[in-house]
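Notes to self after the Tuesday call (sharing in case useful).
The group wants a holo model before anyone commits to mutagenesis around the pocket. I volunteered. Ligand is 6-O-phosphono-beta-D-glucopyranose. Logging inputs and output together so the record is complete.
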Amino acid sequence: MIARIIPVDAFDLVVFGATGDLSQRKLIPALFHRDEQGQLPADSRIIGTSRREMSDDAFRTFALAALEKFVEKELRTPENVKRFLDRLSYVAAEGTKDEGWLKLEKTLAGHEERVRVFYLAVGPDLFGPICERLGQHKLVTAQSRVVVEKPLGKNGAGAEALNDAIGAVFPEPSIYRIDHYLGKETVQNLMALRFANALFEPLWNNSHIDHVQITVAETLGVEGRAGYYDTSGALRDMVQNHILQLLCLVAMEPPSSMEADPVRDEKLKVLKSLKPLTQATLETHVVRGQYRAGTNGHSSQQSYLDELGNPDSKTETFVAVKAEISNWRWANVPFYLRTGKRLAQRVSEITVEFKPVPHDIFSRTAGPMQPNRLVIRLQPDEGVKLWLSVKEPGPGGLRLKHVPLDMNFAEAFTSRQPEAYERLLMDVVRGNQTLFMRRDEVAAAWKFIDPILDSWKESTDLPKPYQSGSWGPTPAISLIERDGRTWYEAPGA
Ligand code: BG6
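Result:
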């Protein structure tokens, strides 16, 4: 199928934290890709901002280095690179100081009618101060939007305070809270799979589904981000946002349309229906772990504590949660969630396991009957597998074999899959909030997470150790096996 480029209006994008890691790894390469595809209108501008004094040319050199590192060589033709770099300019300005803001005002002046995007690729402590200055300097026009990244607070109360500070300057329809998982092609495909096919919906409930598993496993450790990560941990870093968003997409009712509010209303209902964890269920439904030394492939890995250089950290690098949704569709269908660093394999996958057939008509020689499973692989090797039982060909009686109907997107669609940030940045310019979290969603997600954090704060227990390169601590296996079920480890899933 031919990719279609939907034109966007000319825009000015101001990136705060333009010389940081996110900008270098994700934003600059994503904008380049959109430009190279012909989506950026000729006179659109990208204005880098950060504390550091830097000339326009020095910022272009920084951006060029980012492209050389993160964009495929064949796309970096001299014309493409020049066109992109010509859009860039730089203003040194700080959220907490006056310097630079007049220059930013001047740079933006004269383009009040066009879409203006402020991307805050900075720590959350600067969200409030930057928004305040944007307001004071009257830079927020009718067509302005602000983009913020997680962490949106360290708990529900912190998120409310941040949202108040942003909301004092920008109205909710202009606030874009990014969860980059929602920009992944396969995550959006989850909605296509559920709502563009009549096949699944009649089965998508507790009469037919036994349970759901969501695994987001990484082989990497905390790399250069230990400072941030140690104040966050896996629950805040991955579950409060990415994994709960995936759970919402699996569990939500069909929205009336793909417009932002109908989709977000349905996700919100799911988050509000999550059964709160109590003192009793916290013990059986939640496991936190921390990686110890081990090996991944051939390389040996340090423990989290050694990597961090702090032997006392209680920060979890793994978490498993049994979540339950209290509504008619999902009563008694557990959602087992797990995520961790330094696990055996990098894989993000959703497994929907159906109930067994009500009566087995086959003889013992047919072998054990296996339940149907729908496995949605988000990364790597994006695709969908529907596991079915079929007759093993050949003589020797009717023997059953469990095989997947396998749709590998990489093989089916050979063109380059756009990165999440490409889609999301263009959605901001277009003014489409469907794939961004609304304030009440964030609050509802924290309401589920806060009791877990509170109980950990009070507990003297340490996170359960697990070896780097394993599938997490043993209690995480007990968490699901206690219910007579088992985690599906890739690649067998
Ligand atoms: C980020 C987390 O939001 O997502 C990281 O802060 C994590 O810790 C990353 O590694 C995973 O994203 P992806 O797209 O590589 O699955």
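Two things stood out.
The chain has 16 helices and 17 strands.
The CA atoms of residues 183 and 309 lie 35 Å apart.
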